[in-house]
């Protein structure tokens, strides 16, 4: 995988850590704070014994000295299984000549996978290409999983208009990173994300926006939606302003709704280097009111 | 430089002008292009177009103009020839039996020929010679001359060289005898748009004496009886009429100089010629000397030089050369009970069948008024101009394929440029 295509990117994201936004309830030992406090070697605090506590956890020496029963608490560390979901619909293959949106989504996914893998967390990917063929790599920690993810993503050709909300709803990983342009089933996707967040999961929405969408060509253009060929609108000087306003308002509305749902919303424009975008995603503040 | 088809270049120029105008006034209709966020564009009628004030897509316009002009120039066929003031000659040399001395014809022709001239020879048909040297092997033939054929060939040759010269002079080296001028000659001569120079030769002696006909068949035969009424039957003659199958002796006799064997079968069993697919009957037959009306069965299909034809144009009698003589096959079956051969029309009709091989040489010199009329045509006083003799469909320009290829290549570049432009956007 560390071929010429992604070598520079992987070098650039080395040392980046993607910490969980809240304590993780996984029973397996990892690097993230766990909601469980057990008997690990990392002592945290004492707590008075309460009825129902396991008597085996009472610190008998302290009981002998103080004549009070205390429970010894230790902070556990846990893993955070992460699943990357890529939107490979036709709108991601834009601009037609460079397919910059899809290319940027690929690179960010590979970068995030490498970061997650370096943190010792299981990482996987789910993507459906233009022939409706769904490719899934379940979250794994073994060596070579990043290469496997890269192969799966590279073999995918964006096209069609398959919704990704059902896929997001079906995944059970603790952390989901969804890379999409939100031009498909945005409402259903948001609904599925709310369910995931309510279930204690983390959802990161990486909104991919093409520079050409923000600033379309200045010449008269009959804009056609690649996922709805019948939708054609005339983009000329007189309609450009209205377009830019509508698109900006929609993006702001998306950011507000996703953040309100408890997800992390990050907008990435295609002219931003992938390594910088990966750092921004990994270092983004918590769920409440993070920066865009 | 001149154009073989100037109108094509004019049309191409018009098309180029139209392209410029279209680029100037075109309201650029946007091409549908992919934009995933198209839904955020306010809905407007698709018919709305943006006005383009200046020339749009100048490189594309230049490519299109170049392609159209190249194609137009290719079809118009440019001819680069230094033709100004140049005069070329077409020299037609008579090789028919009308010429008394072939050497006189050759010498007269050589005196008229210059470098680059076209040399034609004619008798009943005209052919183009490779050059003056081809005249050395020339001897006069037995065929009668035809000035109509000669001028028709000259017109075709003139069309081929018209692009390389300014004027064309037509020189005819011939005795211009009466038999060389047929009813069509005047009309064909008028097709030549200039005066004609005639170098007159001495004409051959005319041979128009009455035939002497012999026949082994008795006067009881219906055809021999008819011929007898013409007063041409002799014990020994130059023409032998055979009503049965010819013997080997008859064929040997026919090969002698001046002998004509007329094989005129009395019935279908007397000839082994190719039978017609279906035997039919026809109401008339004509020779150069007369027409015979009657009901004749047609039994054979004859091939050869026709001397008589049925009413529908099929050959009724043909002539074949045999040695220095000839054999005439006459496929006209006459009813033995008929009195047709005893009438005057039969005698007129049969005159042509009894003529010497190739027909009677009527080589009398045409009178001066006929010759003058022939030379001047529609009172032409100048040489024919090359432009009036051009036959665009028969000429070609060596530049045409290159220009058409260039035009096609430019069109391909234009298509590629348009696609590239669309891709970049």
Verbal overview:
The complex is a heterodimer of chains A (292) and B (425). Chain A is an alpha/beta fold and 292 residues long. Chain A folds into 2 domains: 7-17 and 79-282, von Willebrand factor, type A domain (Rossmann fold); 32-78, no CATH class. Helices cover 34% and strands 26% of the residues of chain A. Chain A contains 9 helices and 10 strands. In chain A, strands 5-4-3-6-7-10 form a 6-stranded mixed beta sheet, with helices on both faces. In chain A, helix 3 (100-118) packs antiparallel against helix 4 and helix 3 packs across helix 9. Mean pLDDT of chain A is 85; it is low at 287-292. The radius of gyration of chain B is 34 Å and the shape is elongated. Chain B is of the alpha/beta class and 425 residues long. In chain B, helix 6 (222-228) links the parallel strand 11 (213-215) and strand 12 (239-242). Chain B has helices spanning 6-25, 58-76, 102-112, 147-161, 185-189, 222-228, 248-254, 344-353, 368-376, 386-389, 400-424; strands at residues 2-3, 27-28, 32-34, 50-51, 78-79, 87-94, 118-122, 126-129, 167-174, 196-200, 213-215, 239-242, 260-263, 275-287, 291-300, 305-310, 315-322, 325-330, 384-385. An 8-stranded mixed beta sheet of chain B has the order 11-12-13-18-17-16-14-15, with helices on both faces. In chain B, strands 6, 7, 8, 9, 10 and 19 form a 6-stranded mixed beta sheet that branches. Chain B has a two-stranded antiparallel sheet with strand order 1-5. Chain B has 3 domains: 2-31 and 51-80 and 399-424, no CATH class; 87-206 and 364-391, Rossmann fold; 213-353, Rossmann fold, CATH 3.40.50. Helix content of chain B is 31%, strand content 23%. Chain B contains 11 helices and 19 strands. The A-B interface holds A 90-91, 94-97, 181, 183, 210, 212-213, 216-217, 219-227, 231-237, 239, 242-243, 246-247, 250 and B 28, 30-46, 48-50, 423-425.
């Amino acid at each position: 995988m560390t071929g010429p295509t992604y070598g520079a990117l992987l070098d650039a994201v080395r040392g980046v850590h993607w910490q969980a936004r809240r304590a993780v309830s996984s029973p397996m030992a990892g690097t993230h704070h766990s909601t469980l406090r057990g008997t690990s070697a990392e002592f945290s605090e004492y707590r008075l014994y309460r009825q129902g506590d396991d008597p085996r956890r009472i610190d008998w020496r302290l009981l002998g000295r103080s004549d009070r029963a205390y429970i010894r608490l230790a902070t556990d560390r846990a893993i955070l299984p992460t699943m990357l979901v890529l939107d490979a619909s036709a709108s991601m293959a834009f601009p037609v000549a460079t397919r910059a949106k899809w290319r940027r989504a690929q690179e960010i996914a590979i970068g995030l996978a490498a970061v997650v893998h370096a943190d010792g967390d299981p990482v996987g990917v789910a993507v459906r290409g233009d022939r409706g063929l769904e490719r899934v790599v379940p979250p794994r920690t073994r060596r070579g999983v990043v290469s496997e993810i890269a192969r799966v993503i590279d073999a995918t050709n964006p096209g069609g208009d398959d919704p990704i909300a059902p896929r997001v709803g079906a995944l059970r990983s603790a952390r989901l990173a969804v890379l999409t342009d939100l031009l498909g089933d945005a409402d259903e996707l948001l609904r599925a994300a709310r369910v995931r967040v309510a279930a204690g999961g983390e959802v990161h929405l990486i909104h991919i926006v093409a520079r050409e969408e923000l600033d379309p060509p200045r010449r008269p253009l009959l804009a056609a939606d690649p996922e709805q060929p019948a939708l054609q609108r005339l983009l000329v000087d007189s309609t450009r302003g209205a377009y830019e306003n509508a698109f900006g308002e929609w993006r702001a509305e998306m950011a507000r709704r996703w953040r309100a749902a408890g997800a992390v919303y990050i907008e990435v424009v295609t002219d931003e280097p992938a390594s910088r975008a990966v750092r921004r995603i990994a270092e983004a503040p918590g769920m409440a009111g993070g920066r865009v | 430089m001149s154009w073989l088809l100037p109108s094509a270049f004019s049309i191409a120029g018009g098309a180029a002008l139209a392209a410029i105008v279209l680029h100037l006034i075109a309201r650029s209709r946007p091409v549908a292009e992919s934009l995933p966020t198209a839904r955020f564009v306010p809905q407007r009628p698709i018919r709305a177009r943006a006005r383009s004030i200046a020339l749009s897509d100048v490189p594309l316009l230049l490519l299109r103009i170049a392609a159209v002009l190249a194609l137009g120039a290719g079809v118009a066929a440019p001819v680069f020839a230094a033709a100004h003031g140049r005069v070329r000659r077409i020299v037609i040399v008579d090789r028919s039996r009308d010429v008394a001395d072939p050497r006189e014809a050759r010498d007269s022709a050589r005196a008229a020929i210059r470098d680059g001239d076209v040399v034609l020879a004619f008798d009943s048909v005209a052919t183009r010679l490779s050059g003056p040297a081809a005249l050395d092997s020339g001897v006069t033939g037995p065929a009668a001359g035809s000035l109509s054929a000669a001028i028709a060939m000259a017109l075709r040759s003139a069309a081929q060289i018209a692009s390389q010269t300014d004027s064309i002079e037509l020189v005819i080296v011939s005795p211009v005898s009466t038999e060389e001028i047929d009813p069509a000659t005047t009309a064909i001569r008028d097709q030549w748009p200039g005066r004609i120079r005639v170098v007159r030769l001495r004409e051959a002696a005319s041979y128009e004496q009455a035939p002497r006909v012999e026949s082994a068949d008795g006067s009881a035969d219906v055809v021999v009886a008819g011929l007898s009424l013409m007063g041409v039957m002799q014990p020994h003659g130059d023409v032998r009429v055979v009503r049965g199958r010819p013997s080997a002796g008859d064929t040997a006799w026919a090969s002698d100089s001046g002998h004509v064997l007329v094989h005129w079968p009395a019935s279908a069993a007397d000839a082994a010629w190719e039978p017609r697919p279906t035997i039919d009957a026809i109401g008339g037959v004509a020779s150069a000397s007369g027409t015979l009306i009657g009901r004749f069965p047609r039994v054979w299909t004859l091939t050869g030089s026709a001397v008589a034809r049925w009413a529908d144009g099929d050959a009724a009698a043909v002539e074949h050369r045999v040695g220095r003589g000839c054999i005439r096959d006459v496929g006209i079956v006459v009813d033995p009970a008929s009195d047709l051969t005893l009438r005057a029309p039969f005698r007129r009709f049969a005159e042509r069948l009894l003529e010497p091989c190739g027909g009677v040489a009527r080589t009398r010199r045409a009178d001066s008024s006929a010759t003058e009329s022939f030379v001047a045509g529609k009172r032409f006083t100048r040489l024919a101009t090359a432009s009036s003799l051009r036959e665009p469909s028969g000429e070609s320009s060596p530049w045409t394929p290159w220009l058409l290829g260039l035009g096609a290549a430019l069109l391909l570049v234009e298509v590629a440029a348009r696609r590239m432009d669309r891709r970049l956007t």
